[in-house]
Specification:
alpha+beta, 3 helices, seven-stranded antiparallel sheet, rod-shaped
Length: 169
C-alpha cells in the first residue's frame, strides 16, 4: 500500500513537471493553474491504471499449477468510470497441485481448496475447502470443523471450469 501511495505521488509530480515544461516552452503563455490540474490528472490516471491492472498483477503472482475458476466484475460509486468499464473486484483460484481424490461407494470424490481474492483497501484472501462429487457434479463446502455443509450444496455444470479442472485433470 505504501508503494502505491509513493507511485501516485510520483505520477502527480511527473505530470506537474510536464505542465511546467509546457509553460516554459510557451514562454509562460499557458496559465499557472495547468500545473496542479496536470498533477491531479496524473495521480488519477495512475490510480485508474493500478485498479484495472490489479487482476492481471494478482494472476501473475499465483504459483505454478493454479487455475482461475471465476471472476467478479463490479462498479463502485466513488469510481464513476467503473459504470462504463467494470473492473474485476474478486476472483477465485484453484490449486490443482493439492487435489485429493478418493472413491466412496463407486463415486469419485475430490477434496480441494479454493482461494478467493477480493480487491479492497487492503487485499483480502479467504481460503475454503470443498468436496466435489465427480459423478454428480455436486459441490459441498467444508466447515472449519471439516464437516460438510449440505445447506450450501451447489450443482456445477459439466462444462464449468472448476468441474473440468478438478475432475478431468
Amino acid at each position: 500500500m505504501i508503494w502505491t501511495i509513493i507511485a501516485i505521488v510520483f505520477a502527480g509530480l511527473g505530470a506537474a513537471g510536464i505542465a511546467l515544461i509546457l509553460r516554459k516552452l510557451t514562454r509562460n503563455k499557458v496559465p499557472k493553474w495547468i500545473i496542479p490540474v496536470f498533477a491531479g490528472m496524473g495521480m488519477l490516471a495512475y490510480q485508474i491504471y493500478y485498479e484495472y491492472d490489479w487482476f492481471d498483477h494478482q494472476q501473475q503472482r499465483q504459483p505454478e499449477g493454479t487455475v482461475v475458476v471465476s471472476t467478479e466484475e463490479g462498479q463502485v460509486f466513488w469510481r464513476p468510470w467503473t459504470y462504463w468499464f467494470p473492473m474485476t473486484i474478486a476472483f477465485s483460484v484453484l490449486d490443482t497441485n493439492n487435489i485429493a481424490k478418493s472413491e466412496l461407494n463407486g463415486m469419485e470424490l475430490a477434496e480441494f481448496i479454493l482461494y478467493r481474492f477480493e480487491k479492497q483497501h487492503i487485499d483480502h484472501v479467504s481460503v475454503k475447502a470443498h468436496v466435489l462429487n465427480c459423478e454428480t457434479a455436486e459441490l459441498l463446502p467444508l466447515s472449519s470443523e471439516r464437516t460438510l455443509q449440505f445447506e450450501r450444496l451447489r450443482i456445477l455444470a459439466k462444462d464449468d471450469i472448476l468441474y473440468r479442472s478438478v475432475c478431468h485433470d
